[in-house]
Amino acid sequence: MTFLFSTRILKIIGILIGVFLLIFSGISSILFGLTDISWEMVLHAYTNFDGSNEQLIIKTSRVPRMLVAIAVGVSSAIAGALMQALSRNPLAAPDIFGLNAGASFFIVFSVAFLGTSSLSSFIWIAFLGAGISALAIYLLGSVGRNGLTPMKLTLAGASIAALFSSLTKGILTLNEKALDEVLFWLAGSVEGRKLEMLFPVLPFMIFAWLASFFMAKQVNTLAMGEDVAKGLGQRTIWVKTITWMLIVLLAGSSVAVAGPIGFIGIVIPHIARAMVGIDHRWIIPYCAILGAILLLLADIGARFVIMPKEVPVGVMTALVGTPFFIYIARKGFSKS
Known about the structure:
The chain has a single domain, classed as ABC transporter involved in vitamin B12 uptake, BtuC (Orthogonal Bundle). The protein is about 75% helix and about 0% strand. The protein has helices at about 10-30, 40-45, 55-85, 100-115, 120-140, 150-175, 175-185, 195-200, 200-215, 215-225, 225-230, 235-260, 265-275, 280-305, 315-335. The radius of gyration is 20 Å and the shape is globular. It holds the Pfam family FecCD. This is Iron complex transport system permease protein. Keywords: Cell membrane, Membrane, Transmembrane, Transmembrane helix, Transport. It is a multi-pass membrane protein.
């Protein structure tokens, strides 16, 4: 099978191109929007701050949302790649397997019944919800003969997603106050996110990024199948457990900061595999770069669709991801 970057040199060149595009996208995220921003304004905001409206927008809005978009894009894409390898399911992703739904349920529950209202409080509640969802999926998928298998993991994920989604809709139907307060968060957005919201979960993200890269070789072996991995001497239960913990850190921290932004975890791993093949030592860094670029571009587009208002970035990623999801689903069914 032919890939876009088939040799090591080409893959390195691809990463360098990706880094350039990421930098360009990040700069564009700072400059473009309802308020016109120039390079000089950006430099003066950090070297000669005068309190002007433009400089305040740069320091309190544009730069923080750019950094949040990069962190969430990287984490969501890597989480999707790991989930697809672990479940051997091309449609696996944190939003499909219920991690986002679990985080959303806990947020809505805390607003409706505990009176939680600050976004800073949402961080840890969402992180807890994603972790509990992941634990439930892992335990359900491990029950029975042969332990954790891709099919049982997929069924458990779909069941947990349906359960928490139904519970969330039930609470929102009965409590209009909760609906008003969390509706924009549930759509997924990086608007209004401050660095104070990113910093508490950033260490978890960075640790998971690095650990995912160092686990890539073991993930490659596991992706070949349970029997093959055991035949090669791999302790598959530990690899699955560690990989699942990394998925929790990546998906949970992403949802905690930006809400349940979907489809990045589905779309990006497929694009990465089309570029570099099935080696996760390359898939993971490509996912990191491409995930950040996609979310940055989606956020830029969200500012212009209904200007002067903004569309939640989760809506923009859905516009890109839904056709791709349908394509992958049809392709999978046609082979079965």
